[in-house]
């Protein structure tokens, strides 16, 4: 195949197949389940079972087949979440079946065979069912952000060419000398450039400083979420209020040295709790600290957990992302140094449950 096709075409074909791999497998399982339904219907009816009972039995078994194959082999939903997935899958499949029945009846009146009507209507309703199943039945996709420094050390245009629109959000690290940074050449105007390159993406700005009010006026016009540290030298509650009053979402960051209890007084003021999971915040390419898994587990047990999201920043890659029971992850070197950054982003988005690594 590689010898016949141009290298660029072959690479593009591989990428598209990878990007739509869940959809393609979903189609295969869907078509197979339809044939199972039809064969069971015909077989049971031939053996004397009433038509309605044969149809119901065939439909039930085909739905269970499609559910199990997608859960086990396509989306790889973990055991703990399969009951929820089954409820959504059964509900969505039931709604789809009702719509299918309504349209199929019309086609049967026009002289179509049962098989023709069943496959024809299923093809029309396919997109409806697939979108709902991806959104609800198998909704464990992580939001992935790519980290960019506001300290003028990276080529933003080059990063844009590498990752395009594949990230769910852009994570901007602004580090000043008060946080022990070696590079204090903060160029906050880079935020305007980042916003221009990704106008359709959320911008999360992580203020790695002990004096966040120094930068708020320059950051707020371009940020959707502003994350400040618990370890600041200012009134944290007031800083969070300032961010919220500006119409932005406030977030709170904790280094590995800060206890989780320190965050509890501020949970009603934030929409995002970010854990830094590396030894030296502000430096890319470090290893993920495995102790963070215990912190994540503890946070997920908090009574007010539903009111905020968790973001992990530091050492995230395709080998550990499936361990992180959180909504957001930030990656820098894992994406930007990958041979195919766009594909790496997709791996991080779906490795949690959808891809064995």
UniProtKB/TrEMBL annotation:
It is a multi-pass membrane protein. Keywords: Isomerase, Membrane, Metal-binding, Transmembrane, Transmembrane helix. It comes from Nibricoccus aquaticus. This is GtrA/DPMS transmembrane domain-containing protein. Gene3D superfamilies: Aldolase class I (3.20.20.70). InterPro entries: Aldolase_TIM, GtrA_DPMS_TM, Ribul_P_3_epim-like, RibuloseP-bd_barrel. The keyword Hydrolase does not apply. It holds the Pfam family Ribul_P_3_epim. GO terms for molecular function: metal ion binding; racemase and epimerase activity, acting on carbohydrates and derivatives. One of its GO terms (biological process) is polysaccharide biosynthetic process. SUPFAM superfamilies: Ribulose-phoshate binding barrel. It comes from the Bacteria. It is found in: Membrane. Residues 26-138 form the GtrA/DPMS transmembrane domain. One of its GO terms (cellular component) is membrane. The keyword rRNA processing does not apply. The chain crosses the membrane at residues 21-41, 47-69, 85-104, 116-133.
